[in-house]
Every structure is written in C-alpha cells, then in structure tokens.
Design a protein that fits this description.
The protein is of the alpha/beta class. Helix 1 runs antiparallel to helix 2, helix 2 runs antiparallel to helix 3 and helix 8 packs antiparallel against helix 9. The longest helix has 28 residues. It is globular and about 85 Å long. Strand 3, helix 12 and strand 4 form a beta-alpha-beta unit. The chain contains 17 helices and 14 strands. The chain folds into two domains: 204 residues; 270 residues, Carbon-nitrogen hydrolase (Nitrilase/N-carbamoyl-D-aminoacid amidohydrolase), CATH 3.60.110.10. GO terms for molecular function: N-acyltransferase activity. It comes from Mesocricetibacter intestinalis. Keywords: Acyltransferase, Cell membrane, Lipoprotein, Membrane, Transferase, Transmembrane, Transmembrane helix.
C-alpha cells in the first residue's frame, strides 16, 4: 500500500509541473515538481524509484500534451477513447527519459548537486533528438516571466532548464539535510547562494547589453487572423469564403500598413491553382505601397515536392512569381500531421493516418531570410519555433525580425496554443530579436526582444492586429555561441566531479 502512495505522489507531482507552463504560468511549480522527482529517486528502493520516475513523467506528459487528442479525435476521425490512448502512448514514450534520468542517478549513486542537471540535460537532449525529437515541456520555458529569465540570452532554454534542475537539486539537498543529514546543510546552502548569484547576475545582464533597438527601421505590420474553423479549412465548398475573408482583411490595411502577414497555409488550396488571386494581390499591394507575406501550400514542379511555405507578394522590385526565390519552405515536418512515416503501411489503417495535407516534403534546413519592405525575416513555420537550434542556424547578421506563422486551430480551446506561444517568446529572449507570430485562430502576437508580449489578438476572432515594430541589431551570447557554453560547463562539472572521486578513492586506498 505504501508503494501505491509513492506512485500516486509521483504522478501528481509530475502533473503539477504543467502548472508552471502557460497558460497557468506558476513558474515556481517547476522547482517543486523537479524537487519531488529527485526525492522520489533518492529516497525509495531502486525499483520503486524507477517506476516512480516513469509515473512522474506520465503525469507531466499525459496532462501537458493532452491537447493532442483534439486533432486526433476531431480532425483525425479517431474515436475519443482511441485519441486519449494515443496520447497516453506518446506520454509513455516521453516518460522513458525521466526513467533514464532516474536510472543514471541510481546507477552512479549521484550525490553531487551539479551532476543532477548534467544528467537531466543529457536526457533532455536525447528527448529532443531521437526519432526527430519532441522537445516540448522543457522546464526552462516556465521561467520566461520568472526572476532568472536573464539566463536565456546567455545559455538558451536548455541552460535555463539546467539552472532549474540545479536549483531543484539544491532544494532537495536542503530538505534532506534538515531531515536526515545536518552536516550537509552548509554544502546545500552554499549551492543555493551560488545559484542566487548566478541568477541575479544573469537577470541584471539584460538583453540590452547585447542588442539595441533600431527605431529608424520600424515597420507598421498587420497580422491577418482569419479564424477559419479547422473542420472547414480544407472543405472545397468553403474555399471562396476563406479567400474572401482574407481579401477583406488585406484590403482594409493596404496602404496603411507596410506589411500584412497571413498565417500558415492561410489559403487552403494549392498556390499553383490560384495564381490569378496571387497576381491580383501583387498588383493591389504594389499600387498601395504595402507588401504581403502569405502562408501557402506550394507544389514545386521542378523538384516534384509539396511544400508548406510562406511567400512574399507585392514587392515592386521583385514581383511575385510562382517560382519566387523570396520564399521559405518548412524543413522540420511533424510526423503524421504533415508526413506519414512508413506511409504504405500506415495510411491504409484509417483516417487518423490520413489527416488533410499530410504528404508534405521538407524544405532545406538552412534558408535565406525572407525579404520584405527592405527588412530580413528569419522564418519558422508552426512546430519549428520550438527548435531553437534550427532557428539560430538560420539567423544571419542581416536578420531584423523572427517570423513564425502557425495554425493552432488543430488544438481547439486547449492549453496547447498557449504553450506554443510561450516557446515563441523564449526564442525572442534567447536570440534578442522581436518575434512576429501570425496564426489562423490565435494567438497572434507581437513579442519584443525580451520575450514580452507587446500586443496580442483574442483567440477565435476574425481580426487584424496592427503594431509598429522596430527590429534589433547585435547578438546575444546564445545567438553567437548556441549551446556550446552549456556543454563546456557540463564537461567541466563532470571532469571536476570525476577528479574529486579519484582523489577521494586514492586517499581512502592509502589510508588518508
């Protein structure tokens, strides 16, 4: 019976970690959840600890990504029980990484506080890499509004996650010392003071040290949020209504906005099939002095690839054409949503493997920024905004803004779109660039280079959101160096710990 209570605590403490993420934003819950995980691993028998870590992960992931069932059930046509079962299967897979963390802690009898974040970062790296990766719900994201957010421009979200785990290990050590080992209290307290100094210095060192605003290059930008219901989006009978909605939003802002941006796959037809519509937009925009960035589904005939892309329309110097070089095509596709692995085997199994537009091919990993109104936009389509390394690799010295377009209608009125927005905010803070986020049903937003939301549109409303946004110039340390400083820090901690262990072993062997 005692073990059942431990397992219940494990599941609930993992689920409680979701409260640290948006839309709840109780950032302190991240520390409590991870402290509970460490306590479960260190204070219970090995087999119990491993299962508890797995159940902690089940609590975090089954609740944290529960929004996936909306697309599987409502738009994939799977029965609701099947949709929840598939979410649980995904959660079970993701929970293998906390389980691996627990195994490593017990296998190497980790006692050094700095080794907890080293091992956690290793398992989180694997979670974001294996099978193309699913780096959702990294605890560093929860600190975007916390006092230690200033770590992100230096070490990125992985470094911020490292800090959260380190602090959680220190909290566990303090509680453990007070309860069982008073002699170790001073060591734990020293770690807490060190963490407070690191966090304080990072918070003090704001992004303004690294980047500066260029008000002389500010643009008046409008985000067209069409609010097309997902069950209507790909309905051929609704195509002309969709075109009319976006045409109306565009026409009301031509001439008053420098740039009008439409969300991911805003026009639900092959771009190749509605060329007159695009040429008409080119002419109208050029006459009014505005330009457009439009999310489209494009068939590249030369390479025979179906691409999820965004393209610039209205530039009088480089007029729109179907084969336009001023285009970005999504590189990191979502399995089952945008392409189907083992397609010949899985597609015949049912509608859940045949979602609309699930036959895309990938664009190049590195692509030049889009050029619009004389400004450079490094782009990320939907899921790609959570891939900080890919976006960083696509930044250039000329990049003025980060642009992300999305269609979160797939996930309805759930916590998914809010988590997605939180990740977009982190990219702004890490890279020191304003982020422009255009979505179909929300949450469309303008985000400054500190990751703060300047203004956002309400969800599930047809609207146009306009803001005058200035770019930044310069680089944060993370933009310049990526995760290299974090990996060097991990290596240093590991070598120091190994050296200390060898010295201790030598002293014991020699009777010292």
């Amino acid at each position: 019976m005692k073990n059942y209570l431990i397992y219940l605590i494990a599941f609930c403490s993992g689920a409680a970690g979701v409260l640290a993420f948006s839309p709840f934003d109780w950032w302190g819950m991240a520390y409590l959840s991870l402290t509970a995980l460490i306590a479960l691993i260190k204070t219970t028998p090995k087999k119990t600890a491993l299962l508890a870590a797995f159940l902690w992960g089940m609590g975090l992931f089954s609740v944290g990504v529960s929004w996936l069932h909306v697309s599987i059930h409502q738009f994939g046509g799977a029965p609701i029980l099947v949709s929840y079962l598939l979410v649980l299967l995904l959660a079970a897979y993701l929970s293998l990484y906390p389980l691996l963390f627990a195994y490593l802690v017990r296998r190497f009898n980790v006692g050094s506080l700095v080794m907890y974040p080293v091992l956690w970062t290793l398992t989180e790296f694997l979670r974001g890499w294996v099978f193309t990766g699913f780096p959702w719900l990294q605890f560093g994201y929860t600190q975007i509004d916390g006092p230690f957010a200033g770590i992100a421009p230096i070490f990125g979200v992985s470094g911020l996650t490292f800090f959260v785990m380190w602090a959680s290990a220190a909290l566990f050590s303090i509680f453990s010392a007070l309860w069982r080992r008073p002699r170790k209290f001073n060591i734990a307290l020293a770690h807490v003071f060190l963490l407070l100094i690191v966090g304080g210095l990072s918070a003090y060192s704001s992004h303004k040290v690294y980047v500066e605003s260029r008000e002389d290059k500010a643009l008046t930008i409008t985000l067209a949020q069409g609010n097309i219901e997902q069950n209507l989006k790909w309905d051929p009978d609704y195509l002309y209504r969709t075109l009319a909605i976006y045409q109306g939003l565009i026409e009301r802002n031509l001439g008053t906005s420098d740039l009008i941006i439409l969300p991911e796959s805003a026009l639900p037809a092959l771009e190749n099939q509605i060329q007159p519509y695009f040429f008409a937009l080119q002419q109208a925009a050029a006459e009014k002095g505005s330009e457009l960035i439009i999310g489209s589904v494009y068939h590249n005939i030369a390479s025979d690839r179906l691409l999820n892309s965004i393209v610039v329309v209205g530039d009088p110097q480089q007029p729109y054409q179907q084969e336009s070089a001023n285009r970005y095509s999504k590189h990191h596709l979502v399995p089952f949503g945008e392409y189907v692995p083992l397609e010949s085997l899985l597609r015949p199994l049912g509608s859940v493997f045949n979602l609309p537009m699930s036959a895309f091919q990938a664009g190049n990993e590195i692509q030049a920024p889009l050029q619009a109104k004389g400004r450079a936009f490094s782009a990320a389509i939907c899921y790609e905004i959570i891939l900080g390394a890919q976006l960083r690799n696509n930044l250039t010295t000329a990049t003025d803004f980060i642009l992300t377009v999305s269609n979160d209608a797939w996930f309805g009125d759930s916590i998914g779109p809010w988590q997605h927005l939180q990740m977009a905010r982190m990219r702004a803070l890490e890279l020191g660039k304003p982020v422009i986020r255009a979505t179909n049903t929300g949450i469309s937003a303008f985000i400054d280079a500190r990751g703060k939301i300047l203004t956002k549109a309400p969800q599930f409303m047809e609207t146009a959101l306009t803001y005058k946004l200035a770019p930044t110039q310069g680089k944060t340390p993370y933009a310049a160096l990526g995760d290299t400083p974090l990996y060097l820090l991990m290596l240093m901690f590991t070598l120091l710990k190994s050296a200390a262990a060898l010295i201790r072993k030598s002293l014991l062997k020699n009777g010292g």
